[in-house]
UniProtKB/TrEMBL annotation:
It comes from the Archaea. InterPro entries: Puta_zinc/iron-chelating_dom. Pfam families: CxxCxxCC (PF03692). This is YkgJ family cysteine cluster protein.
């Protein structure tokens, strides 16, 4: 019910097909399911179905809302982009360091290379070409990234870390020839769980408003 209030069914099907096409293999689907479970637990505390049962709200509505929050930016509904939301909530990152220990490859765009080497000449021998993406380079060692200080849980080149690290947990993809940030659906990242929860609450409130005005 909630999804129908916010997006025409035909359009939602298109979004779903597009995202399924983008998802490579089962792992993204598993991550999505896991995130949905984790967010649902938290969302039920913030927006109890019991309280809104008189409006016909069910657990299924909460699941639909979370699915939309995972696959669509709020700008689609006239709200802020994922990038804007994340910029306002640096506290969501709990510095677990998982992204620096387990992400590969760490992309460095060719436009970033010179400024990076200018401020960190020692990196010259640490960066190699990325044959899969000719416009990009990558760190020679990134599992874990050798610039991650495990004890301090800090990045030793923080001020000049690559763009991909600055925007994480959003990742840049090309959608219809335009660069677009989408969340990297990583269930172990508190940043991602908080982002999907925040968007789910906004979408829930918006649906309720629409329900009341109908
Ligand atoms: S995995 Fe997420 S929560 Fe952990 S350090 Fe990276 S961005 Fe922060
Ligand atoms: S460069 Fe810094 S922020 Fe990027 S993965 Fe390595 S340690 Fe993490």
């Amino acid at each position: 019910m909630f999804r129908d209030l916010l997006i025409p069914e035909e359009l939602w099907e298109k979004v779903l097909q597009k995202s399924l096409k983008k998802e490579k293999g089962e792992s993204t689907q598993i991550s999505r399911n896991l995130i949905q479970k984790l967010v649902l637990k938290k969302l039920r505390k913030k927006r109890s179905v019991k309280k809104y049962r008189k409006y016909g709200v069910t657990r299924q509505d909460l699941q639909e809302i979370i699915e939309m929050a995972q696959l669509l930016g709020l700008e689609f509904f006239g709200g802020p982009s994922d990038f804007e939301i994340i910029q306002n909530h640096p506290e969501w990152c709990n510095n677990c360091g998982k992204c620096c220990r387990e992400s590969t490859p760490i992309f460095i765009h060719r436009d970033e290379l010179n400024p990076l080497l200018l401020f960190n000449p020692d990196l010259k021998n640490e960066i190699i070409a990325n044959p899969a993406y000719p416009e990009h380079y990558k760190f020679k060692e990134d599992l874990p990234c050798k610039f991650h200080d495990i004890e301090d849980k800090k990045c030793s080149i923080y001020d000049s870390r690559p763009q991909v690290c600055q925007s994480y947990p959003l990742i840049l993809v090309e959608v219809e020839n335009k660069p677009h940030y989408i969340p990297h659906l990583q269930p172990d990242c508190n940043y991602i769980i908080s982002l999907v929860l925040e968007k789910s609450m906004i979408l829930f409130d918006e649906s309720l408003k629409k329900l009341n005005s109908n």
